[in-house]
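Researcher: Structure prediction, please.
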Amino acid sequence: MLIIGIAGGTGSGKTTVVHNVLNQLSAEDVIVISQDNYYRDSSHLPFEERVQINFDHPRSIDFELLVSDLKKLRSGQTIAQPVYSFLTHSRTGESLITPPKKVVIVEGILVLTNPELRDLFDLKVFVHADSDERLIRRIRRDIQERGRDLDEVISRYQKTLKPMHDQFIEPSKMHADIIIPNERKTRNFAAIDVITSVITNRLKVNNEHA
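Model: Predicted structure follows.
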């Protein structure tokens, strides 16, 4: 099994990179795990308190469960991922049954900040985008997909997103094996080709030794 970590700031285009990689691989061989499903359960808290949680700090992620689930997948076990709702700021109580596959892609803003998780990655990728571009993408996504209003998005960006990006996410770039610039006018398809080549070559080697 090949485990790949893809990180980057909010709105950097991680999901687009993942989709571009998936387009060049067989869907039967790959699963994608989102860090977002591993936010710590806060369903026991009143909604007013959940809204105040700093979801951009590493302590908001249940890294222990994520690491445990990845180890289970690597050992051939099927896992039950928690499902997180951005509307209620809590886990839904449902599970996403996930069987092991040849390639596991773990994507999220904080996946390169945790040493134990990093040690499980065979390839570490960081997607970089200009801060203004990331803010624009975040505003569009939160308003269109998560039911937030403009003032809420901007306030959260100023209070938590930007400080946490500067403190935790941007420094985690130093752990990346590949850094992909993802600006509006610059799509680094060469870097994506490198990632897919690494994956296909590794799969070929694994198949030969199977």
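Model: The beta strands are 2-8, 30-34, 79-85, 90-98, 103-107, 123-128, 178-181.
Researcher: Thanks, that helps.
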